[in-house]
Structure formats: C-alpha cells, structure tokens
Design a protein that fits this description.
346 residues, single chain, 40% helix, alpha/beta, 7-stranded mixed beta sheet, globular
C-alpha cells in the first residue's frame, strides 16, 4: 500500500488525516487518548475496522498515564478511558469490539506487575492492527471468487484501506480481483454528505491504477437500468444476527435499486462487525451528525441559512436484499441467521 492508515510509531499513534484527502496527504501524531477520541469523532480516521484499531491504540496511549497501586484502581481508570472512546461514534460495532478486547486483555493479566500492563496493552493494539490487515486480505481472496472477469462494480462510501488497517473490505475484494488479473472497473458513489466515495475511494483506487469512475449518488439507479453496472460491493458498520446490515447512508437505496435491476449486492466485512446481540437491524443505533455536513460543502454554504436538516450517517439494509456476505472465513448466502452463527462458532 502506498499509504498507512494508522500505525504505532515511536511511542505515538500516527494517522493519515482523512479530513484533508485528497487535496493533502498529511499524517497527524497523537500522544494521548483524548486526542485520539477527538480524531475518531472528527473523522480524521473513519470506517468501522479502522475506528476499532484507533480506539485500541488510543486506550494503549491512555494506559501509559495511569497511576495506580492496585489492579482495581488501575482497571477503574482504564474503564474511564474506554468509556471516553465508546462515546465517539455509536454505529460501528468494531469500536465496542476493540474496547472489550482491550479490557479483557487487562483482566487476563491482572496478576502481572502494573507497570507492565501498558506494554501488554500496546502489543494487543498493534496485534489488532496486524490482524485486521490479514483479515482484509482473506476477505479479498474469498470475495474475488464472486467477481467475474470484466465486471463493473459499484461501491458506496469508502470501505478501503483507509477504512481498515489497510487493503480494505469492499475495496479488498476489488483489489484482489484486480490482482488476479481480472479486467474490472469500478463506479464510486460520491457518498454525500461527507463524500467518502469522491474524496477517498476515488483517491485510493486511482493510486493503485484500478479503473474508477465517479458518479453522484443519484446516478446509480439509472446506470443500473442501462445495464452499465454488473454487481455492487459495500462494507458494513454492524451486521445483526439475521444479516441486516448497517452501513453508510445511501447503502439501502443502492441495495433496493440493485434488487429492482437484478444485480447482485454483496456486503464485505470481518466477523468482528457481526453483532450477535442484535436479533435484527431495528435496534442498531444510527449516528446523527452535524447539520453543517449537509448545508455546507468544504465550508461553502449550499443551502439557505437556518434550514431544517436531517443527517443520519447510516442506514440499515434488510438481509433479504443481500446476495452474500463476504467475510475472512468465507462467503455466506441464504439463511443468514444460521450462517452467521456458524461463522462465529468456527
Ligand atoms: O462514517 P464512516 O466514513 O465511518 O462510514 C464508513 C462506512 O460506512 C464503511 O462502509 C464501513 O465502516 C465499512 S469500512 C470497511
């Protein structure tokens, strides 16, 4: 990869600043957990798996400053750090998954000397990052099998290297198919209001020389109808136990249009995105973001001042619209309730 989304370097957390792409490729350094939490909230880093990695690294940064004389007081302070991380973004379940994993590691090492715990937590955060990269590559390998030579693929938002430790989920499938020598082309939805498709997916694919055509979100249906799109692949922020999938706002519309036009619609995600505590998608918390993201484009107003705005950042696609879910453990189709359970137990 020609960029690094996030890494632990020289006792700091370094992230590419996604608010400034594609105009500038700037790397920010973080020394404390509060600024990492702010970076997640402010979308310097975004995308469910990348948010999980950032939270873990933020917790590891915070752990360095804990002063305690017993594991109980240590753990109480660690929990406070975890709570600050948990308040950043509500929809991506990978955030909560990573927080729980860091807490479990602390508990599992409660007998160790307290001054060694921050090293253990740092190693765990780095491991989460390394595992995520390997998982994305496995998703790519499995997903490439459902991509035909010559395929024209629509993707929404950015589920790429920038949204993960690298390589990506939906874009991992696209990368792997491209690396297999398949002659594929990509349509990237611009993804209003935050423009992840225009700013990030287009940037990432162009950097790799994968043919990409940018479209405004409202063009996808018409291009499907004209036969110009052969399949859709998107990422996920949270997948309920029955396969209902929360992803970037507009994903549901793409899925419905794909069904109407008899086009396969795939979700690519690691199993850490499964939320087996949710029976279906109805209870998935949907983040509402600031109205300014809708009323302004790059700081320029595009709506009358004072207009009422809604800005849900995600929607939920019912599982019946999903042709398959591509995971690091294989591609599942059909009876999602049973298949998801099987993968979790695998
Ligand atoms: O608001 P964002 O940019 O964090 O939303 C990102 C998405 O919706 C992605 O599709 C999802 O997190 C999967 S990333 C591999």
């Amino acid at each position: 990869m020609s960029f690094r989304t996030i890494e632990w370097r020289d006792n700091k957390v370094v992230m590419i600043d996604q608010t400034r792409l594609p105009a500038e490729e700037v790397y920010n350094e973080y020394n404390d957990f509060k600024s990492v939490a702010e970076a997640i909230r402010g979308m310097v880093i975004r995308g469910a798996p990348a948010i999980g990695v950032a939270a873990a690294m933020g917790i590891a940064l915070g752990a360095r400053d804990i002063i305690a004389d017993s594991f109980e007081t240590y753990y109480r302070q660690l929990t406070n750090i975890c709570e600050a991380m948990a308040k950043t973004r509500p929809t991506a379940v990978n955030l909560f998954w990573a927080i729980e994993r860091m807490k479990r590691v602390a508990q599992a090492n409660r007998e160790k000397r307290l001054d060694t715990l921050c090293d253990i937590l740092r190693e765990e955060a780095i491991l989460i990052e390394e595992e995520d990269l390997a998982i994305c590559k496995a998703i790519g390998r499995h997903g490439a099998r459902v991509v035909q030579d010559g395929a024209v693929i629509l993707t929404h938002c950015n589920a790429g290297g920038l949204a993960t430790a690298g390589y990506g989920t939906a874009l991992g499938v696209i990368r792997a198919a491209h690396d297999d020598g398949k002659n594929i082309r990509v349509f990237a939805d611009e993804t209003r209001p935050w423009l992840q498709g225009a700013r990030l997916t287009a940037w990432e694919l162009m950097k790799e020389g994968i043919p990409v055509t940018l479209i405004a979100d409202n063009m996808a249906g018409w291009l499907m109808k004209k036969g110009e799109i052969g399949m859709c692949v998107v990422g996920a922020d949270r997948i309920a136990a029955n396969g209902d999938t929360a992803n970037k706002i507009g994903t549901y519309s793409v899925a419905v249009l794909a069904r109407e036009n008899k086009i396969p619609f795939y979700v690519a995600a690691p199993t850490s995105t499964f939320d087996m505590t949710m029976e279906n998608g109805d209870a998935i918390p949907i983040e509402e973001r600031h109205s300014r993201e809708v009323t302004h484009l790059q700081g320029v107003p595009v709506a009358p001042e004072g207009v009422c705005v809604r800005n849900p950042a995600f929607d939920v696609t019912p599982h019946r619209y999903i042709t398959g879910i591509i995971t690091e453990k294989g591609v599942i189709t059909g009876d999602y309730a049973r298949q998801l359970r099987r993968l979790v137990d695998k």
